[in-house]
Amino acid sequence: MRLEFVIIFLVSFLAVGTLAGHNCKCQDSRGQYNELTVICCGKDPKANPGIVYYGGGNHQCTSPFGAIDSGAFVACCQSEGVGGAFCWD
């Protein structure tokens, strides 16, 4: 019984965690920069292990706990010559 509760709790938490949070990707009017998004995702100033890069169709940096510093993310993208980043909750 206890194990079933733990499993249900973890599955619910992960399902909500993937939908909620803060997301960013490097992009501007010229397009989306997937490789740079990977780099900037790894340069989080707080070195937060809860920040994950999702490839596939999304190509976004995601934090289910809202831990991405969007200002630092935009600065990272701009430091590589991209106009900015798109960040959303």
UniProtKB/TrEMBL annotation:
State the source organism's domain of life.
Answer: Eukaryota
Signal: present as a keyword of the record?
yes
In the UniProt record, the signal sequence range is 1-20
Return the InterPro entries for the record.
DUF5948
The UniProt keywords, alphabetically, are: Signal
UniProt protein name: Hydrophobin
Taxonomy of origin reads: Eukaryota, Fungi, Dikarya, Basidiomycota, Agaricomycotina
